[in-house]
Amino acid sequence: MLVSGRGSNLQALIDAVRDGRLQATIAVVLCNVPDAPALVKATNAGIETLVASHLGWPSREAYDEHLAEALHARQVDVVCLAGFMRRLSARFLERFSGPVLNVHPSLLPAFPGVDAPDQALTHGVRVAGCTVHLVTAELDAGPIVRQACVAVHPDDSPASLSARILVEEHRLLPEAVARVLAGGWRVDGRRFVDA
Hints:
Rossmann fold; 22% strand; 9 strands; four-stranded mixed beta sheet; single chain; alpha/beta
């Protein structure tokens, strides 16, 4: 897992593994922020943690190469981005051949990038939500694995809408990871196709 912040989606995956809803092992949590709360969650769960700050590298590709090497050394099959606030380069995707999943707080392709709930409110949408997608070199544009909808209330703020979306992220991410690990799927153009 690659994380940058509080680690609530990491905790959702830890809980799903512990409860038997997700048949997987979280091999390592890589974090680019040395004091991120996600590191405490991983340590408390007995998961190896690595801090790899993105600062000071000669290029994004060099940093991503370092991340890919760390994952390969631990024989990681699937990478989950859970609040990892860095865009992975094409070099990372070339070096790491397994699926890379990201959870995003909008119904993609609407509102890619940062501040998606705020973007949704600014545009006056009636329904928001979250998406788990396969990562490609294009920002938040990979094949969609799973999505969940959240109603937008007239009195919503970005914080209140984000909180409701996060509940769905916690439910959706373990389901999407389980689906990808189960195999029998393929990508057809931009579409994730269940076999």
